[in-house]
Amino acid sequence: MGYTWWIVILFLALAEAQVSKSVYKLSIVCEKEGRLVEALDRYIRSSLANKSHVDEQIQSFHENTKEKRPRNNDTTEWVGHPINAFHLVERAANGWQKVKKRINCSDCDLTTANQDFLSIWNEVVEVDGIWARGQDVNISAYALWRLHVTYNLDIKVLMSGTILNRTTFPLSVTDVISIGNYLDTEDQIEWFEEFLELADVTEKDSISYKLAMAYYMADFSWKSLAILTELQKTGSMPVERMIKVVRQKAEKFGKDRPMKRMKSPKLYIAKVDEKLCQGNIQSDPATPDLHCYNKKTRIPYYTVKEEVLSNVPRISRFHDVISDTEISLLQDISKHKLVPSTTIRKDNSRAQHDGRISESAWISPSKNVSKKLEQRIELLTGLDTIFRVTTVTSEDMQVVNYGLGGFYVRHFDAIYIGKQGSRDSMKKAYGDRIATWMFYLSTVEEGGATIFPKLNLRVVPLKGSAIFWYNLLPNGDLDIRSQHASCPVLLGSKWIATKWILEHSQVFRKPCKIHSMEEHY
How many other C-beta atoms can be found within 10 angstroms of the C-beta atom of residue 2? Predict the structure, then answer.
């Protein structure tokens, strides 16, 4: 009975899976789509050979999909381009579903070609649940909007399929409308307004109507009415009934409220963070003591390249501290465990959050690779991170893969400060997260930097390196300077592995200091 319920719960979890939150899972969807393209090709050829009718829309979808798919076998690089990823998700969630319905229609003849395609469909899509759903299109649309806003991407260039030096198939007007449909009303207004400012807009009336409806839903009835009145003059679409509805609302409530641009709750990127993510804010030039050197350890012959990124508080990057083999091991162990990342709420419960777009997995300290890395972290930080049955010195390592436009809003790693809840007993037993060690498991082509807004510090992901900082002051209080965020991934795939070190086990390694202004170094 228990095992049956576990299977049911797993199935439900997979049914709600969101592949857009992990570039790795998007690459799996891309590979699966390749099998469906082959299956659809066989269906079309077999049906035509047997003189059976093949829907023209199916043939058109097949040709368009083949044209837009990657030309080589590097699916990770291909889905690392957000426009490719958006097209993939939209096809998987909508286009392929329509193809399946047309082949499996109630009045269609049951042929060998039909059965073969549906068999492959079940094998590819239904078995493990890794496939794009409607929610993924929503996440993907917001990802493109987030990238446009955060990195100040020119909307015309974005529509052309170009992001920096990488070009792919362009966004169509239908895509632009589709993206707008998934945005909140005030975001829709800005998206459609910017699009209408382009010189060579096609289907201008359709988008103007969408803009009018967005204004109406956002309670700017007079603005909506002005647009609808202009559309009425062109006679391109019947708007008389809508004009009557909007006019009634406008006259009832009077003047529109002042137009105030507010960031959508699904963006959570402050202006200073946008500039840091773009690299437009430099660190304080009055820090001549920042340097790189070979850090000595208690093993005489073992030194590591340490780059001091911030002296007060101390934040360092350690170079070449994890090998490609170890990175592959961590990724291989975590891939089948990846689930949507969560955040810790004030009551210490965990929940998914629109401000964190990634998937994560916890790696048991019993794994050999985890043991080796814990020993290395201990050697370089001087803090106790070694797993022992008798005590807890640190949390299990968390491996994270970011998704399409994946990011993480400003947050503190210390989790108990100012919080009450069921985990208070854990705080008493093990303490809070005194420090964070974060491995970069990939070099991100563009974007994805770790930023510390209060320090104007931006750290670009570099495969094989790790950054280290303290979350608590030496007296145990929260260090507000440790607040950090992860910028949206613009191009590529971002993998990290984080080790949170707990304070109580460091009592003999890092004695508590009394004064709040004292530093760890």
Answer: 6
